[in-house]
């Protein structure tokens, strides 16, 4: 930052510089755009400047720090090290979370107490964790398993034993989060906002929402480090300029948009067959025939979740589509789950979300599938009978809502399978990105705005 300040000065910039802490930016990114006037705010990640987790009370335009949990005690660092132990990169927490549903936490949770010795303070035995060290021998002795050199997947040696480790890590996380939440004055601050990388743990979030510990829960869609840019801007607005809060997050569609005229010009330079159609009716029909559809509409989503504008869609009733999507399109581990996008006004009949409308709106909390619905939507149910559902309203995304409604009219099922439109790369942003991914995977059709794109004969 000091180098940037010097360089900007040399370029003629004469504005003021303000240092804002990493966790304060996370907290502001959640609380100041939430619908709450007062809320408890929990920030959990690897590390900021010195803090690994922070608690705030938010009221009006003010954020008052309750306490910090400091380096080297870090729940985020535990996830990074264990992800590497299981053969993934340190940033593949979502893959470990998906694997956890296939394990039994009772097999390993006692061992995790050797790593995190006190849930309430997030105290970590550094001799056991050795976060930045390439040495995994303490973990290998603890779990009696060698460190994986490749990611765990179905069929690899001892995959079930490694799944038990992932399950124990997930249970440890949930226990630690509930222990930390006990620090809040919930009588005075009955709602909860969450941010930081660990706030993307949808399984833990779902249990917090369903616990009833707080009246409502808001998680900003870009809860990871990208969200700190929003938080920094808000802190300058409220604390430096003294301005009131004036924005409540209502949807995550904040990225670039491409109209039909621009899409037509781009398609004209390809050899791909395409035609303008009633896109919701045509795509709903194609979904019922077992096709995988690239769905590219409106403004791109803010945050790591595809929420119906840069999505791959399929029929949730098709029990074989998960394997097709994981192996032929996404080229990823076969145990990875897929999510349903469901009509918000029909969701309660299918899922027990326990409230938390905003968390479920942005696909940030799991819900439990109601027993009488489980056999009808096998493609989107995870091993533990949960889903990470997105509740879709007509006000937030009219075209996507109409597509799902048309699918329901044809099938009686008010939801579709939704996953991010990508293949081991960032989510597609432009029509050119979408066309490239369409051509290099086994997606059957591509819906670009009002145009339906087919494969060449």
UniProtKB/TrEMBL annotation:
Annotated coiled-coil segments of the chain: none
InterPro entries named among the record's database cross-references: ATPase_NBD, Carbam_trans_C, Carbam_trans_C_sf, Carbtransf_dom, NodU/CmcH_Carbamoyltrnsfr
Cross-referenced Gene3D superfamilies: 3.30.420.40, Carbamoyltransferase, C-terminal domain
SUPFAM superfamilies, A to Z: Actin-like ATPase domain (SSF53067)
Pfam families in alphabetical order: Carbam_trans_C, Carbam_trans_N
Carbamoyltransferase C-terminal domain sequence ranges: 284-455
Molecular function terms from GO: catalytic activity
Domain Carbamoyltransferase as annotated: residue spans: 13-234
Family membership noted in the UniProt record: Belongs to the NodU/CmcH family.
Record PANTHER family: NODULATION PROTEIN U
Identification of the protein by name: Carbamoyltransferase
Record organism: Nannocystis pusilla
